[in-house]
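User: Need the bound-state model for S-adenosyl-L-homocysteine:
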Amino acid sequence: MEIDMEEKKGDLLSFTREELTEYMEKTGQKKFRAVQLYEWLHKKLASDYSEMTNLSKTLREQISSEYEIYPLSILDKVVSKKDGTAKYLMATKDGGVIESVAMNYNYGMSVCISSQIGCRMGCSFCASTLAGLERGLKASEMLAQVYLIQKDMNKRVDNIVVMGIGEPFDNYEQLIRFLGMISDESGLNISQRSITVSTCGLVDKMYEFADEHMGVTLAVSLHAPNDDIRKSIMPVANKYSIDEIMKACRYFSDKTGRRVTFEYSMIHGVNDSGECAKELAGRIKGLLCHVNLIPLNDVDERDYRRSPDEGISVFQNILQKYGINVTIRKGMGSDIDAACGQLRKKYIDKKVTG
Ligand code: SAH
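Assistant: Bound-state model below.
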């Protein structure tokens, strides 16, 4: 994807360690300076060149004349009184707005990041897609969401889920660059096993992703047990059938040895009947997988409502009877519009109406 940001300064945070090494060599510096700079940027999370005390002042001045460090700034932050979940609105240099969320679990802090500004997948129950796609985020902008949150919360990020605004596989190259850099041992060194990427099911990219040999978990937004229901809520279902998705999931788990997570948002009267549960069980039986039932977050612009809690439990029980591993997602930050795209949408609407 072409990114025209009319930036005055270059995108330093997107440089891999190898690219920084090339840069240092080109400017006549010693190679090891690249590792030092990479560590300042990606391990110590320096936001100002003055912190980089083991680099000469001349070198720092040279780099700072060409490159700005952070491509994002925090616009707003809302913290849940219920569970401490913090939702961030962040602004890109070209005026885009994205959301990221920090959630505290007993196993550590998990951060949910956006991969695009807006989305063009058009899922009918999702607020992120209502205004369409502006552009994919650069790797630096995905990294900066994690870094800014770690600095703001003053706590190490343990897990990352790429489940915020956007379709990560619609921004594939930058996503792969991000995953490599966030797990780099000279950077934050977050284990790939602690990272989950969620896709609406772009099958071609699912195969490519399996072939990257990363230890990252793949989550697939299934949301329906058959193509008819899926087509009624997810336009992408007109391009790829559930059969094709299942084949790609099998390929992924064979290749990586990792189980796939199926996300299933429970929409009342659409996909939450006992029949749907049985059909779903038949579809995924025998696959190395796990189902995560997500109580729908109501979106004002849409008619969909969440399934009642008993309905979700019944659905879970049916799947379990068929031997399927299934959990219900804990609603984090329900008092702060923590669902995908809702805070951003409110912000944009407010700007439009003054
Ligand atoms: N584009 C990717 C990742 C972003 S959305 C994907 O489709 O997987 C993360 C998850 O939240 C997806 O499963 C998405 O379908 C789901 N989601 C979106 N809007 C929702 C809503 N209003 N309630 C519950 N889940 C929702």
